[in-house]
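Subject: sequence -> structure tokens, single chain

Hey, anyone have a minute? Need the predicted structure for the following. Not urgent.
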Amino acid sequence: MQRAGAEPPPVSSVSSARVGAILGVAVICAGVAYPVTAAALRHTSASVITTSRALGGGLVMLPVLRLVGARLPRGLRAWAWVLAISIGNVVLTLAGIAEGTRLAGAAVASVLLNSAPFFAALFARIWLDEHLTGRQTAGLVVGFAGILLIAGSPAGASGSDVRLGVVICLSGALGWAAAGLGMRYLSTHEAGFDVYGASTAQFLCGGVLLIPYLVTTRPTPTDWSSGDLWASLAFLVLGAQVVTYIGFYVALSHWTSARVFSWTFLVPAVAVGIEALQGSLPGAAASLGLVIVIVGVGLVTSRADRRRA
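Reply:
Had a minute. Here:
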């Protein structure tokens, strides 16, 4: 077991290339998830999408664990970590994606949910005693200025209630940041930590926690005969859930959190690009807010210390 606060050993150039490729695929899948979620919402409710992603991802991963020689966590302490992290990265984040997309539109939701590096920087300062640089502080100010601009431009978004959507999306970003740092901590402080088993357990645990949300939310009629719905759910389970989460957490086991989180600001660019091809962009003020948020995220996370990564 590594000592507290220790960084993992440097990876080779080949390993770095592989981790970069894994993150690249994860980022693309994460970006595509927002317009795909918007498409699925035409046929079902946000609660169905959210719960299906979590439980579906866990069920898909169960046979994969045997193929890769992994297993579910064992022991009360390990499952306590699973429960805590699943609340952040499954319950809050997935509900934030689905509900945020419904209320604020795919472009706005993708940017706000991927403002998680802001919160990761703050949490790292509080929990890990990592100090913010002047550049990172400036990025936080710039990024939140963009968030305020988006929140003040409800007519510019493609959703039905952008103000509520902003709150939900930011809750999801908080959950994603806290969960990511939790996984980073386990990867660097727990000997023999199994990222595949832990991720699978989080999907299943989070899916169970989402069942009350599914049952109590006012249902939107689901058209189970729709091929578009099944195609959307298939991508959201396999691509957005399994590939994105596993890719992100594998990267966190090799690279520093700042270096990994810096890639998430590319996710909105993917989502916004897809919405542009579909002819659905936010208005001028909201679009400016999106750009400002992306710039802020870049300022916060672009300082990747490669000597330690």
